[in-house]
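re: ur msg from earlier - yeah i can do the iron/sulfur cluster complex, just paste it... oh wait u already did. ok heres what im feeding in:
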Amino acid sequence: MREFDRVKDDSDKKGIPASLAAPVLEDVKHYLRFLEAIGCTGIGAGEKGREIAGKWGPGEKTGGEDLAALKKNIGNCRRCRLADQRKAVVFGSGNPRARLMFIGAFPEAEDENTGIAYSGNAGALLTRIIEAIGETRESVYICHAVKCRPASDRLPDRFEARACRSCLERQIESVSPEMICVLGGFAAQSLLKTDEPISRIRGRFHEYAGIPVMPTHEPAYLLVHPAAKRAVWEDMKKVMARISH
Ligand code: SF4
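and the outut:
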């Protein structure tokens, strides 16, 4: 019976939508009946197994790996050469069970000093954007695709982005948000594994692991190009309309 418990736990962690989980669960129940019919025993294919499978549902949102444990695990990570350039690993912060997750590119100098993602001028603008959609920095979760700041603020290369991806994936799995907003081209391209420029992918929903993803402009870009704020507001209105309240 432990095997059934283990599978149920995994389902819960991912917060699989009911529309996706229901047909899979139905298939599993049929498969269990089939296994029993051909005489397979010892793997929970009998009546008790089906009874347990019948109780499986899409699961409440409980999140995955504990964020604090993950942060501790990342610790003084040296998986890529940014380890020699950074002042500090900036892990991310906010509600560990947030419905909405913001992911930027990499930390700025202020973020390294404070240890908090988006704590400088761009962060102040992001805070205003978050508040404009009725959320707070405490209600959402904010992090970067790459956790260490490259020297001279150059973009991380693909090896560095790849090295840090597993941390980001585990963070997303842990928070299990209803929706992700990626800020700027680098973060969007990293998460969505695309080469398309932000100008072509922003403003419409994409998907990562079954989670809707809205790419929009990076707050630092808006500080230099304030006219782009209107486009970001249009993107945020779509986020507000789609996220549950
Ligand atoms: S950027 Fe990511 S993978 Fe590279 S050293 Fe920092 S935490 Fe580790």
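cool cool. Residues 2-55 form one domain. ping me if u need the other ligands too
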